Amino acid sequence: MPHSTPLITTIVGGLVLAFILATIAVRLKLPPLIGYLCAGILCGPHTPGFTADSHLANELAELGVILLMFGVGLHFSMKDLLSVKNIAVPGAIVQISAATILGLGLSQMMGWNIGAGLLFGLALSVASTVVLIKAMEERNLVDSNEGRIAVGWLIVEDLAMVAALVLIPALSGALGGRQADDGGTSVWVVLGLTIVKVAAFVAVMLVIGRRVVPWLLERIVYTGNRELFRLAVLAVALGIAYGATALFGVSFALGAFFAGMVMAESEFSQRAADESLPMRDAFSVLFFVSVGMLFDPLVLLRDPWGVLGTFLIILVGKSIAAYFIVRAFRHPKLTALTISVSLAQIGEFSFILAGLGVAQEILPKAGQDLVLAGSILSILVNPLLFNALDRYRARTETARMRPEEPDPGV
What we know:
This protein is mainly α.
């Protein structure tokens, strides 16, 4: 009789299924992310066959969130953001607002309260970093004008979502969710205390962390031990994330994001990114698998109109808003189309927000199902949109480079 090993079973089952389905997804020229989510659906409680331990999966997902946010912070570039700030900042704010309003409108049609609708719309407003960067890298667009705008836009979206993750628990009661255990304290007092705690954490990280962490990495590098350096990177990421929660009461996500930001100040930041990538990738896979486990495929039959509305907000509503914003700043049509297609999907931040909304009893479980369905469908369609854009780009460049017809009289 084998020993009960739910942790090993969950990790092995999740990774093996993710590998098989991600391989199939890549063969179909789809993002591996689709395979990870489908692996989660297959080993979740809503489908027959093998079922992973959902509680352990959630714990592993927390590690995935920490390492995902650490990676976002590690690649955060204030220089890149400032170079396109005139369009990225107002563009992202307007597009987030447009998607949130559309999501709120759809939620009202489904009979949800205002708080649930706002969180639902916010979850639909932010694109997946993983999907966008991958698509840009495949087309060598990261260093182009379109790529810089898209990445800058995404940075603003990510910063807005980080702020939302901090504020949502404090505003849970006001949004119609679970009341904080604060002895009846005013929501403004709770919000103020949250902001003070976050400000204290940020101050410590900017004043002390940005000096200590690069100094520590430098000392470790001088030992010449690669294994110790890799361990230092992970220890800093996880230690700061946990310390942020234990000492300042802020989220793991925010702590990990700032851990990445202060580590980016080091001259060895690229090496830190490279050394931590395998571990970040492994736990990111488990994060997406755990998200897939939450998805109930029957929502496609139970609420097809809700799924369709969610999908259209992501694919059409966000894209149109982004297109007109970019055109309003007098950028070429091709740039506007590239930004629109890049943002026509949702991913990891949407899952994190939806999960937080359900945990705080703000968002109904049906809302999380719609976010997951919208994400899966939009990520499936996004490569097709990029392929169509590639053909349009090729036609445009061919027309621009076509030589003039020679004069027959010459």
